[in-house]
Backbone:
């Protein structure tokens, strides 16, 4: 039987299914495994079901010569060195599409919470600070009728834009390539700087790559309106967190809603002192239905490779051509 490693706790019925089909290697961890732990876990395995917290690089692959597939239970794959996977003949897969709607919902949860000061209000009430009703109490930013900027107009970006229509918002966006009109659906393409200047609020949905490292730093934050809310559901590192903290401290930006951080989960402690930031622990896709769909797709990807079939969400197609040869 093929040996399959699972690096995090996932739905028990899916684990049982895997155990019926393969020899399952310990799946007790409920945290991202470090390099040494991961290498020890994967050493004699044919396949690995991993999450975005685990790094797959050349050293790991060299230590795990049996590996045929690393199946990432995430759409983002900046934790995988695809070139190294290809060199080692390992197929790498991810879980696109199934999380678009849940992730878009969470972007809106952060946008609404930050704009309308929901978590700050909650803290205010719990602290017993609500003594009387005041006309100017906790005034937030208007979303209805305003302009939403989306940086990264892939499938999740477009799901966010669809929701904006219900709020009567105009949508401006940046994407490396302009979308066909049918996908734009009324949204207006602009350069990133122009989006930052003209939008009332901005959501970031770009993948993390060398090109998007600190895409939003001090200079870009300075372009935002001081009344703007910035939402990051992309990846830590897309925003320069130190620059964002300074902008929030100095009121150069009204608020931020953040699901991802540099060095997460050890985020900059200064975030915790700010009232104008809403923080969630990288959970944008975390609904029961969506996480199940992600795990299902990841298992199907893995099973396909082990059965010699090209998986639907293959990230390094070159490896497949080599395998076939
Ligand atoms: C993803 O799917 O990329 C989410 O961020 C979870 O890691």
Residues:
């Amino acid at each position: 039987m093929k040996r399959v490693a699972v690096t995090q706790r996932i739905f028990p019925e899916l684990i049982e299914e895997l155990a019926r089909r393969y020899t399952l290697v310990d799946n007790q961890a409920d945290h991202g495994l470090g390099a040494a732990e991961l290498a020890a876990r994967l050493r004699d395995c044919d396949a690995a079901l991993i999450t975005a917290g685990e790094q797959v690089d050349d050293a790991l692959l060299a230590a795990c010569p049996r590996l045929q597939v690393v199946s990432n239970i995430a759409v983002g794959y900046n934790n995988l060195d695809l070139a190294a996977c290809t060199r080692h003949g390992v197929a790498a897969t991810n879980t696109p599409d199934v999380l678009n709607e849940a992730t878009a919902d969470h972007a809106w949860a952060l946008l609404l919470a930050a704009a309308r000061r929901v978590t700050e209000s909650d803290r205010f009430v719990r602290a017993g600070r609500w003594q009387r009703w005041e006309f100017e109490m906790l005034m937030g930013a208007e979303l209805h009728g305003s302009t939403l900027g989306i940086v990264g107009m892939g499938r999740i970006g477009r799901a966010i834009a669809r929701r904006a229509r219900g709020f009567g918002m105009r949508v401006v966006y940046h994407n490396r390539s302009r979308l066909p009109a049918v996908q734009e659906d009324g949204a207006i393409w602009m350069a990133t700087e122009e989006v930052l200047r003209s939008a009332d609020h901005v959501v970031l949905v770009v993948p993390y790559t060398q090109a998007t490292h600190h895409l939003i730093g001090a200079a870009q934050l300075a372009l935002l309106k001081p009344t703007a809310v910035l939402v990051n559901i992309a990846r830590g590192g897309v925003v320069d967190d130190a620059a964002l903290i300074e902008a929030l401290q100095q009121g150069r930006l009204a608020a931020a809603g953040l699901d991802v951080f540099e060095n997460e989960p050890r985020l900059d402690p200064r975030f915790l002192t700010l009232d104008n930031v809403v923080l969630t622990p990288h959970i944008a896709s975390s609904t029961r239905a969506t996480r199940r769909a992600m795990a299902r797709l990841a298992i199907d990807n893995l099973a396909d490779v082990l059965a010699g079939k090209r998986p639907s969400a293959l990230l390094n197609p070159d490896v497949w051509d080599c395998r076939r040869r």
Q: What stands out?
A: The pocket of (2R)-2,3-dihydroxypropanoic acid is lined by residues 52, 74-76, 99, 285 (CB under 6 Å).
